[in-house]
Design goal:
Shape: globular
Structural class: alpha+beta
Number of strands: 7
Number of helices: 9
Helix content: 25-40%
Largest sheet: 7 strands, mixed
């Protein structure tokens, strides 16, 4: 009989694991649906559905282009050192201007350039829950790496925010990107004002930090929101025809994110989870304040298939690097 108590279930899994990976779970309570994350990861590895690795560059017309990549992703846990990695672009980059608040960006940066630590930099874009959309409420882009020079990475972050029309709501302790945007006078355009999630969740311009969320004030609440999102039934049209409810965690395609969910502890670096907290938190804020995207119409399946074809490999000679 499956026990309803999450801690008892996890302790039982330690003693009688269903899968070899479950042998590595800690006896400490993991608040996330880690067993579903284990199964989702296994499904992705077997099906290859996770593999949307892409390199990003600007084409001759100045527009963003992608090229299929075979570069490995950053392993979890990271052992330290500089490491480059491809983007995971699950939903193709939009080619037209997107409605405000349809996409939300977030990131977890590093405090310093010392790469000897196990900290990584994670940038994500999520899509708001909309009717009849397979990407509704899901992570559509993920990029985790530790570059030697952050400025080229920041240039790409900005280009992606512009392409998705996605403002960013990050943890506000590591704000090298804010300084980068300030040099272009774009910080107010692409960073979201600070919100304290322990209060009435009103934007507070009087806080010490102008943008994003503060861990001391809001992290526990945001972790709860992420837990709920991973456990709640998805609204994605890709899964809503299946028998029974499909949990949010079962729609995630980023294997690194799933590994952090599976191995979550309060005292370890979970940079992908930290990036997700801002995106999920801001989507919640938009929903409770009825700041929903104004969609003119839904895209057809044929249009989405056409966009997928356009992500085919392009000759390297046509690249224009950032």
């Amino acid at each position: 009989e499956v026990k309803k108590d999450a801690l008892k279930l996890q302790q039982e899994t330690i003693q009688y694991p269903l899968d070899p990976e479950e042998c590595f779970l800690s006896a400490n309570k993991n608040p996330f649906p880690y067993l579903e994350a284990v199964r989702r990861k296994q499904y992705l590895l077997e099906s290859g559905e996770w593999d949307r690795r892409r390199i990003l560059y600007k084409g001759e017309n100045g527009k963003l282009e992608t090229e299929i990549s075979t570069m490995p992703l950053v392993e979890y846990p990271h052992k330290g050192g500089v490491i480059d990695a491809p983007l995971l672009i699950f939903e193709d980059i939009p080619t037209t201007l997107q409605p405000e608040n349809l996409y939300v960006a977030s990131f977890d940066d590093v405090k310093q350039d010392d790469s000897d630590t196990d900290s990584l930099i994670s940038f994500q874009i999520w899509k708001m829950e909309t009717f009849n959309d397979e990407w509704a409420g899901r992570m559509v882009l993920s990029w985790t790496l530790r570059p030697e020079n952050r400025r080229p990475m920041y240039e790409k972050w900005l280009a992606l925010q512009q392409a998705y029309n996605a403002k960013a709501f990050p943890e506000n302790e590591d704000m090298g990107y804010k300084s980068f945007l300030e040099t272009k006078h774009l910080d107010e355009k692409w960073l979201i004002s600070a919100v304290d999630f322990t209060s009435a969740m009103n934007i507070n311009s009087n806080q010490k930090r102008k943008y994003g969320w503060t861990p001391r004030q809001s992290k526990r609440v945001l972790l709860g929101l992420l837990k709920d999102k991973m456990e709640d039934p998805t609204k994605s049209s890709k899964f809503n025809q299946e028998e029974g409810d499909v949990m949010g965690i079962q729609t995630m395609n980023d294997i690194g994110f799933l590994e952090e969910i599976i191995n979550y502890k309060e005292d370890v670096n979970v940079d992908r989870i930290s990036a997700a907290l801002g995106a999920v938190g801001w989507m919640h804020y938009l929903e409770i304040n009825w700041m929903l995207p104004k969609l003119v119409r839904q895209q057809t399946i044929e249009e989405k298939e056409y966009k997928f074809v356009r992500t085919a490999i392009r000759p390297s000679a046509r690249r224009r690097h950032f």
